[in-house]
Model the fold of this input.
Amino acid sequence: MALFKILKGESSRIDTGTTKFNEGYAYFTPDDAGFYIDASVGGSQKRIRINRREVVSAQTPVRSDEGDTWLQEVE
Done:
């Protein structure tokens, strides 16, 4: 079992120019509810947001699975 600590800070500091890349680190930005993981993908270092950005308003309701192309019904 792996145990890790999630770093927390403002979303304005999430770019890798401000917060350096660290393979396997996780970051939470409470001001926009972002959750990120640093990973090497295809030889490139990437900070990947793993949760969707969701905008919900009374005028434009959004389903929780809308836009998630990986969610498919199994027949």
